Amino acid sequence: MEGESTGIEITAATLVAGITIGFVWQRSKACSITGYRDLYLFKDTYLFKTVVGMFLGATVGFFALKWVSPFMSDFPAITSTAGVSPFTVLLILIGGLGFGFFSILSGGCPTKHHVAAASGSESSMLYLVGFYAGIIYFQVVVLEFLLVLFGSS
After folding, report:
1. Using H for helix, E for strand and C for coil, what is the string for 36-91?
2. CA–CA separation, 136 vs 120, rounded Å?
3. What does the pLDDT look like over 25-83, one tens digit per residue?
4. How many CB atoms lie within 10 A of CB 149?
5. How far is the C-alpha of 82 from the C-alpha of 100, rounded, in Å?
6. Kind and range of the H or E element at 142?
7. Calpha distance 22→19 (Å, rounded)
8. What span, in angstroms and rounded, lies between the C-alpha atoms of 117 and 122?
C-alpha cells in the first residue's frame, strides 16, 4: 500500500490555503462587487484594483498550476463551448446580472458578508440566510423545473 495517497495532504493544503486566503481577505476588506459600484458611481478606482488583481492572480495561478500539473483542464468558456445553447448563455447572463445587482443593493459581495457575519454583523448574517435559502430554492425548485421544461440534456 506504499505510494497510495489518502487525500489527507490535499485536505490539509486546502485548509491552509482557505485560512490564508480568508485571513488576507478579511484584513484587506476587499470586495469585488463594490469595486464595480465605486468605479461606476464615484469614478473611484481604489477598490476596482482588487478586481483587476483577482483576475490577474487567478489567470497567473491557473497557468502556473497547468504548468505544474498536466491534469488541469483548459478554461471551459474559451475552449469547450460544444453543447452550450444560446438559451443557456442567456440564463447565465441573467443570473450573473441578477447576482451582481442584488449584491450591490446589499452593500457587498457574499465573501464580504461572510467576513462581516463572522465578525458579528447581524445584517450580514441575515443576508447569508437569504443567500443560502436562494441556493437551496434554486437546486430544489428552479433546476427541477428547468430540467422538466427543457429536458435533462
Report:
1. HHHHHHHCCCCCHHHHHHHHHHHHHHHHHHHHHCCCCCCCHHHHCCCCCCHHHHHH
2. 24
3. 778 777 778 888 889 899 999 889 888 988 898 888 888 877 877 666 665 555 555 66
4. 7
5. 27
6. none
7. 5
8. 7
